[in-house]
Amino acid sequence: MSDLNLSDSAHPTLPRTEGADKAELEAFSQLFTNKGYFRRDVSSGGLGTFGREVTNEPYLVLLDTVRVKPEFRGKGVGTWAVQKLFELGEEDFLFYDEAKEKKKEEEEKERKAKAPKGVAGLDSYYGPGFLESLFKNRPRRNIKFLFVHPRSLESQLSQNPDSTHSLADLRKAAEKASKERVLRFFHKIGFRRVGETSFLCMTSDPNHFSRLIPIDRDARDMDDPEVKRNFMAAALRSMSNVQLPNVDYDALWGDGRASKKRKT
Fold it and tell me: Checking CA distances to 242, which of 10, 139, 153, 264 falls within 20 to 30 Å?
């Protein structure tokens, strides 16, 4: 019914990826300092919705795509699938790479063969299965924050553009409509903007500040050139309508400085 592609990342180096777009991961990594915290302009930008409570978590998860088959759309399947992700634990994001695991086993055998007598039986501290055993010996921790980068997933394009609309124009319009539809979906289920970036975040914490922000009051995506242009145009329009009050600066200063400046 639905497909979920995930990209997990551990602090602070964001090294692990599965099926993720490299450019998108690079953009995601730009939200953070080299110590794994949000950059100051990100945490304080927009409504200041997300901060250290996010980056103090050992794992952050970037949701790559959510695809629901057409016959199941509009029935809550996508919402259900995303909500189920919060039931996953950190160990569920240990992706198994068969080639890497075989290489580790070969290296471990070689290490034991070269080890002095009496030491060969000792397992390497970071040997195969180390992370799995680590998670088994500690309380289960579910992920608390999901990130997403809304974008166009599909385009319904006309193959017969008319004289007034080129195929490029139709594609641009379709992609814009698709992105807006995807954005509405994520907003509806609880995602809110990270600073003024193009990334959204959602938490499982019902008391988090993001849960208080209405959809229509969420921060703007200032990474979007069109949003930025519209924002600047609105700001200029509002400035042009501002009328400065008439002030008697001589009376205000009391020393005739305003009159002297006008004479010079």
Answer: 264
pLDDT at 162 (0 to 100): 56
- What tens digit of pLDDT does each residue of 210-248 get? 999 999 999 988 767 666 666 566 666 666 665 656 656
Instruction: Quickly state the pLDDT bin for 134 (edges 50, 70, 90).
Output: low
- CA 247 – CA 72 distance, rounded (Å): 66
Tokens coding 126: 């970071």
CATH architecture of structural domain 2-88+142-155+165-240: 3-Layer(aba) Sandwich (3.40)
C-alpha pair distances (Å), 161 with each of 15, 65, 157: 44, 29, 9
**Cα 236 to Cα 231: distance, rounded to the nearest angstrom:** 9
* Alpha-carbon distance values, 113 to 108, 119, 144, 145 (Å): 9, 10, 43, 44
First to last CA, the chain: 78
Instruction: Answer whether 117's CB lies under 8 Å from 160's CB.
Output: no
What is the pTM (predicted TM-score) of this model?
0.62
In angstroms, the Cα distances linking 107 to 103, 110, 123, 125 are: 6, 5, 12, 13
Using alpha carbons, select from 220, 170, 169 the residue that is nearest to residue 196. 220
Domain ranges in the chain with CATH number 3.40.630? 2-88+142-155+165-240
94: its two tokens: 């240990």
